[in-house]
């Protein structure tokens, strides 16, 4: 079974939100994600918006695997969904904490193997991400 999540983040609005909400970065991104982004100060907003879109797209794809069932978590800590780089610029996902446990429970209870594919784009006024889960 394949499930898909897609998310779009408008860059100007996201930049304004970052200015207003100083705690948004530490509440949303891991230290590693922020460090990689700070190495690219000219496109930091684009970079972080792409990561946010990826995290939200994952939640949508993951949620679609549970049609007809309640969500396993009442809230998702987006820092537990980490966007990683394979060293060649290709993004992937690493799950932590309660999100990782909930996905593992899904795998064990259904005898499934869950693989995630991620694509992030930033063009013009938006950042966009698509996550495809193969389970």
Order of helices and strands: EHHHHEEHEE
Unreliable stretches = none
Our estimate of the beta-strand percent is: 25-35%
Q: C-alpha Rg, in Å?
A: 15 Å
Q: Which bin fits the share of residues in helices?
A: 40-55%
Regarding CATH, which class? Alpha Beta
The structure class reads alpha+beta
The total domain count is 1
Oligomer: single chain
CA-CA gap between termini: 5 Å
- Architecture per CATH nomenclature, i.e. the level-2 architecture: Alpha-Beta Complex
What's the main sheet like?
A: 3 strands, antiparallel
Query: What is the tally of beta strands?
Result: 5
CATH topology: Ribosomal Protein L22, Chain A
The spatial strand order of the largest sheet comes to 1-5-4
Quickly list its features:
135 residues, alpha+beta, Ribosomal Protein L22, Chain A, three-stranded antiparallel beta sheet, two-stranded antiparallel sheet, 5 helices, 5 strands, 43% helix, globular
Describe this structure in words.
Helix content is 43%, strand content 27%. The protein is built from 5 helices and 5 strands, in the order βααααββαββ. It has a 3-stranded antiparallel β-sheet with strand order 1-5-4. β4 (115-123) and β5 (126-134) form a beta hairpin. The termini are close together.
Write the layout of secondary structure elements.
Elements: E1 2-10, H1 11-20, H2 24-28, H3 31-38, H4 44-64, E2 81-85, E3 91-95, H5 97-110, E4 115-123, E5 126-134
Antiparallel strand pairs: 1-5, 2-3, 4-5
Helix pairs in contact: 3-4
């Amino acid at each position: 079974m394949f499930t898909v999540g897609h998310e779009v983040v408008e860059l100007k609005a996201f930049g304004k939100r970052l200015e207003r909400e100083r705690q948004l970065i530490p509440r949303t991104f891991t230290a590693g994600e922020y460090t990689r982004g700070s190495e690219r100060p000219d496109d930091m907003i684009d970079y972080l918006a792409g990561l946010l879109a990826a995290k939200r797209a994952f939640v949508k794809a993951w949620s679609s695997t549970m049609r007809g069932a309640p969500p396993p978590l009442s809230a998702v800590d987006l820092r537990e969904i980490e966007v990683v780089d394979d060293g060649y610029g290709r993004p992937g996902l690493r799950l932590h904490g309660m999100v990782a446990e909930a996905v593992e429970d899904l795998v064990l209870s259904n005898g499934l193997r869950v693989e995630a594919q991620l694509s992030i784009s930033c063009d013009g006024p938006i950042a966009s991400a698509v996550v495809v889960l193969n389970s």
